[in-house]
Amino acid sequence: MANTLSGRFLILTIIFVMLAEVFIFVPSIARFREDYLLARLERAQIASLALLATDGMIDDELERELLENAEVLNVVLRRDAVRQLILSSDEMPVIAATYDLRDPPAWVLMRDALARLANPEPQVIRVIGEPVREAGLLIEVTMPAAPLRMAMIDYGLRILALSAVISIFTAVLLFVSVRRLMVTPIKRVVSSMTAYAEAPEDASRIIVPRGRVRELRDAEDALQSLQTELTSALKQRERLAQLGEAVAKISHDLRNMLSVATLVADRLETSEDPTVQRIAPKLVASLSRAINLTEATLAFGRAQEPAPKLDRVALRELALDVVENDRLDAGEAAPDYLCDVPAGLTLRADPEQLHRVLSNLVRNARQALASGDRPGRIRIAGRDTDEGWVIEVSDTGPGLPKKALDHLFRPFQGGARKGGSGLGLAICAELVRGHGGRLELAATGPDGTTFRISLPAGLAA
Prior knowledge:
Strand order of the largest sheet: 2-1-5-4-3
Order of helices and strands: HHEEEHEEHHHEHEEHEEHHEE
InterPro entries: HATPase_C_sf, HATPase_dom, His_kinase_dom, HisK_dim/P_dom, HisK_dim/P_sf, Sig_transdc_His_kin-like_C
Catalytic activity: ATP + protein L-histidine = ADP + protein N-phospho-L-histidine
Mean pLDDT: 79
GO molecular function: ATP binding; phosphorelay sensor kinase activity
Shape: rod-shaped
Radius of gyration: 50 Å
Strand content: 15-25%
Keywords: ATP-binding, Coiled coil, Kinase, Membrane, Nucleotide-binding, Phosphoprotein, Transferase, Transmembrane, Transmembrane helix, Two-component regulatory system
EC number: 2.7.13.3
Number of strands: 12
């Protein structure tokens, strides 16, 4: 029980309440002692007044009875600085201590009370006070200290017993409250986490926040958000794995088909037709890249892209080749292309991977222009900087939709057009990261969209 949250609350509550009662006990016992002594002074004064009313004409038996009723041994009245013994017992005991109750400081009362509790010896004490404030009247009594100490002990035990009852009652209430308000909700959260850990792909096991305590509710909300994102990521990973497996199964047969197409394209190079001679090398190059892709089984989500094979790349020639391929693919619907790359700009990159990146970006730009209702233009720009190289692909389309912006570079979620999978941008981002660079959205809006590729000069593949 001591290792549980509610059990520790219970123990701490009992300890703290008992400590509070200890601090209350000292002034309480001091006040009890003062009241006890004042009561004896009042009784002694009543006895002395009875004696004064008869002018001292009482027998010894009545005098002894008055002293016993007042629980004192002697009674002395001081009137106008004159000390007069009114009532007295047969024996005159030795006085061990004298206490003056005429406005004593609180610390003096507490000190004397603790000293009396600690002293078990049967002593006789003198008490001076003014129980009834008459002009010039002061009363003084002598009394045994043992009954006072016993009364104080009895009072202290009752105080401690009451404190124990209050402590236990308060602790039980706190124990029940803590279990209901904190322990039970925490156990529910732990149970939900355990159930979710058994099958994190199951969205029905995501916690539903129900806490009433603000801090606990915040924790449940954060846990729900974390579990939702994790479940989504696991489902996405599963889809990517399935996609990779499917591509791996067809890659072999597709490679054979592409090999046959390559042989046919090689035959076309011997044609004397100028148009065929111009197109055939591009067809052969495209088929070669497709064969390389199938051989490497570059299925996104099944395995990471291979490390880039860095080489010196003439960016303008590569960009022009990308533009020419895209123009052939677009046919009559091809937009205007602008290659704004200096003729002598050379960078270090994997030419095949950089070609894939630019091809994907240009194709996305062309598809964005097709969704608009105005003539468009695609621009490829490049420049070198102190840190490395910057390549920008921009279009004059209508801009990216909100869905694409919210899930940019995330496969199956960042598609910019209806039916799109969003794999193109995700593949581009991974290939650029493999070069040690980054792909980012530089701008988008009604005037168009620009993607920026930043490659560092010191490439670390």
